[in-house]
From TrEMBL, chain A:
Belongs to the SoxB family. It catalyses: sarcosine + O2 + H2O = formaldehyde + glycine + H2O2; sarcosine + (6S)-5,6,7,8-tetrahydrofolate + O2 = (6R)-5,10-methylene-5,6,7,8-tetrahydrofolate + glycine + H2O2. It comes from Yoonia litorea. Signal peptide: none annotated. GO terms for cellular component: cytoplasm. This is Sarcosine oxidase subunit beta. GO terms for molecular function: nucleotide binding; sarcosine oxidase activity. It is found in: Cytoplasm. InterPro entries: FAD-dep_OxRdtase, FAD/NAD-bd_sf, Rhodanese-like_dom, SoxB. Its cofactor is FMN; FAD. The lineage of its organism: Bacteria, Pseudomonadati, Pseudomonadota, Alphaproteobacteria, Rhodobacterales.
From TrEMBL, chain B:
It comes from Yoonia litorea. This is Sarcosine oxidase subunit delta. Coiled coil: none annotated. GO terms for biological process: tetrahydrofolate metabolic process. GO terms for molecular function: sarcosine oxidase activity. Pfam families: SoxD (PF04267).
Length: 417, 87
């Protein structure tokens, strides 16, 4: 059942009664070739690419809640490929290319909007750092334009350019960066996977991982035992708990990251904009709400709600950068649970248990990685070999110190990212 | 979130710097081996529930504290001077 403009008109004429649920609600089978633990964006895209690219259709996605109910429905929807370090750079470049063909591939409107992303800078030193980052992005084959102050003013006339403390010197424009409708990404991958025969099993919490003789045999769940030759753990903030079922301790601490949305406004912010002198970034949703966020709260948490100090910081930064935002009313704020690694970069790797794979550590940047992570993790699970763009996301880089990817240059330590 | 500092009394979270899991108090010996150091530096139990972590009262008495709190609710139960926990 495909989507088209014709169908939208036809359903409109007949009372919208022809739309059907786009994925089944199957009972779990006793055995699958592979099981994905976690039905978030990354888990669903993994299942989709396992089926599409590797012909593995006897697989299941196990989700303890409902599809779209985790971080994939709680993020600020930014899509970009402006990473600097080898390892990250090629991965996010690949992921952005998948974003650009996702809607045709899935036959699903994810409202991917390449409206341009502008990272502002406020000093000569910061300009140099962004020029260097822009060159790295161009070398990777992506796009970057260094804007001076007047260049930024053409795009973002509403900013406080002459702020006494943090005047705006310019910005790094990433024209292919933008946003997407986050729920639609989850739904599109769920539908695409389901159409290829993947069982998406909601309200099914994994309570144990069965391992015999160093090999994974399946999982224990709240809906019974499911045997599987291969198991992939893709559970973001809950990575620590699920990995513990396999006797693993991960280099991950879970932290809360807050986000905010205002009441709906007429179009006012046309791009994704980030402040360079405080942690604040913003875009406007298609519904009109200003969607913005800041840094993590900086203490380990699973509460999915934050405390006031970071809220204050984000509001301070917003008012410093764009005083007009003081007229808007914040509608709500929320928090998501981030799987933070010491170096701030992710993990897509095998484990010491044969047949058990893990995809985690996306920190506060998992949304843009949804297609790339699923593609690369599916490749690893299906072939046993690392997919080239994600080949540096190794679990053992912390133990050996080889290949750490500290994108922020702050040190590879838990409380620094 | 407020933390009851043994020296200063109950203070706002803003006064404190968060270091991480109190496992950092248990520094391995130099010859403990790579695995022990990896566990010390990187690998974490990362509990969803009760936890013990290390906070620095930066905006107060500047003591290091071991704080017992709940990561699901943000409830803070107790704070002890790290020097007493460490012996």
């Amino acid at each position: 059942m495909g989507y088209s403009g014709f169908r939208v008109i036809k359903e409109g004429l007949f009372g919208q009664k022809g739309w059907k649920p786009v994925w089944r609600d199957p009972e779990p089978k006793p055995e699958y070739d592979a099981v994905i633990i976690g039905g978030g964006g990354h888990g669903l895209s993994t299942a989709y690419y396992l089926a599409k690219e590797h012909g593995m259709t006897n697989i299941a996605v196990l989700e303890k809640g409902y599809i779209g109910g985790g971080n994939v429905g709680r993020n600020t929807t930014i899509v970009r490929a402006n990473y600097f370090l080898p390892g990250n750079s090629e991965f996010y470049s690949h992921s952005l290319k998948l974003w650009e063909t996702m809607e045709q591939d899935l036959n699903y409107n994810v409202m991917h909007s390449q409206r341009g992303l502008i990272n502002l800078f406020h000093s000569d030193g910061q300009r140099d750092a962004f020029a260097r980052r822009g060159n790295a992005m161009i070398n990777q084959g992506d796009d970057a334009v260094l804007l001076d102050r007047e260049g930024v003013r053409e795009y973002l006339p509403y900013l406080d350019f002459d702020n006494v403390r943090f005047p705006i010197y310019g910005g790094l424009l990433h024209p292919r960066g933008g946003t997407a409708r986050h729920d639609a990404v989850a739904w599109g991958y769920a539908r695409g996977a389901d159409q290829r025969g993947v069982d998406i099993i909601q309200n099914c919490e994994v309570t144990g991982i069965d391992i015999e003789g160093g090999k994974v045999k399946g999982v224990q769940t709240t809906r019974g035992v499911i045997r599987a030759k291969k198991v992939g753990i893709v559970v973001a903030g809950r990575s620590g708990q699920v990995a513990a079922m396999a006797g693993m301790r991960l280099p991950i601490e879970s932290h809360v990251l807050q986000a905010f949305v205002t009441e709906g406004l007429k179009p006012v912010i046309d791009h994704v904009v980030s402040f360079g002198m405080g942690h604040f970034y913003i875009s406007q949703s298609d519904k009109g709400g200003l969607v913005f966020g800041g840094d993590i709260d900086f203490y380990s948490s699973y509460a999915a709600r934050g405390n006031l100090p970071m809220k204050e910081h984000v509001m301070d930064a917003a008012m410093t950068l764009m005083p007009m935002i003081g007229k808007a009313k914040v509608l709500r704020s929320w928090g998501g649970i981030m799987d933070m690694t010491p170096d701030g970069s992710p993990i897509i790797d095998k484990t010491d248990t044969e047949g058990l794979f893990i995809d985690c550590g996306w920190c506060y940047g998992g949304f843009k990685a949804v297609p790339g992570s699923g593609f690369s993790f599916a490749h690893l699970m299906a072939t046993g070999n690392h997919h080239e763009p994600a080949a540096k996301f190794r679990l053992d880089r912390f133990r050996t110190g080889v290949g750490l990817m500290d994108e922020e240059g702050t040190g590879s330590q838990h409380n620094l990212h | 979130m407020r933390i009851d500092c043994p020296n200063c009394g109950e203070r706002d979270r803003r006064e404190f710097y968060y270091q991480g899991d109190a496992v950092v108090l248990n520094r391995p010996s130099e010859d403990a081996g790579a695995q022990a150091w990896d566990d010390y530096l990187h690998n974490r139990a990362n509990p969803a529930g009760e936890t013990r972590d290390l906070w620095f009262h930066e905006g107060g008495c500047r003591a290091w504290l071991v704080v017992e709190r709940n990561t699901m609710t943000h409830a803070v139960h107790a704070a002890t001077l790290a020097e007493k926990v460490k012996r």
